[in-house]
Amino acid sequence: MAFSSLDDAVFALSAGLLYRVGISVRRRNLTWTADSQDSWEPLNCFVLVTERDAVFLDTGVRSARRQVEQALRQLAPQLRVSVFPSRNEPDCIGNLGTVLAHAENTALLFGGGGGILEWISDPNVDEMQDSSFLGRREIVPALNGMETTFGEDLHFHWIDAPVKQMFLTQWAYEESSATLFSSDFFGWVHTDDENAAVVCSDIALLPPAAEIAREIPQRFNWIPGAHCDEVLAAYDAVVAAYRVDRIAPVHGCVISGADVVAEMFRRTRDALTSLIARTEENL
Q: Contact 246/255 with Cβ under 8 angstroms?
């Protein structure tokens, strides 16, 4: 069961199912694309589902509200729902109110310092009315370096994003699925049409490092020419720390398969290296 008309967007895991929920839009309508070519950009959020839990990794853009509502109805009518926003920006929290409105006990996993997301508007009520707030929600800490388990099924690691535009951006790694949820990074693979598959499992379809180097500054405009060897060190540390079979970004295709992921890691590092001005002592 998929929620974007894409049957190949669901992964069967030993601990449950991973769903991609989202839409695809023309890249020429987006501000972060490297050019205006007539290709499409998948905009995603993800749901890990077990017998007891449904965990949302981000909630997608507001334009995907219908798909998110359908996922809540069909996947989680009786499940405990938790939601983790990787960034406090519209492509990640566009449907946060919708998910939190699903049930009063929906948990908000948040590692961004607390406070910012404690008051959430009800999407079904005029925001100018006093009743438009779902109320103050208790935040379940998901701080960088922490781990969170859901029963015996899911085991999350919360990670300070090594490459980011927004200071509080986090990545998440889930052990049972070996999936890295990378927020707005690694979204370098696009599609040729709106209904194309959003899963890339072929190394031949990965963009070369030079193309990735053109993509990165559209999302992270401070990187070209910056003296930031620590970014490469942090990137290498994350890549080395986890066995990743799948990269799930909020922009672009899902990267699937250990060999394909490893090649994506390598090409992306080459792209970062070409963009970063190395400090003299490290030359």
A: yes
21: tokens are 């929920």
Tell me which residue of 52, 24, 7 sits closest to 149, measured CA to CA. 52
Give Dmax (Cα) for the chain.
Answer: 59
Among 261, 255, 260, 253, CA closest to 196: 253
Asked if 11 contacts 246 with a C-beta cutoff of 8 angstroms, the reply is yes
Q: What does each C-alpha distance from 24 to 67, 126, 154, 208, 256 come to in angstroms?
A: 12, 28, 28, 23, 18
pLDDT tens-place string over residues 224-263:
999 999 999 999 999 999 999 999 999 999 999 999 999 9
Reported residue count of the chain is: 283
Q: Which residue has the tokens 């922490």?
A: 146
Work out whether strand 139-141 and strand 107-110 pair parallel, antiparallel, or are unpaired: parallel
Per-state percent for the chain, helix, strand, coil, to nearest 5: 30, 30, 45
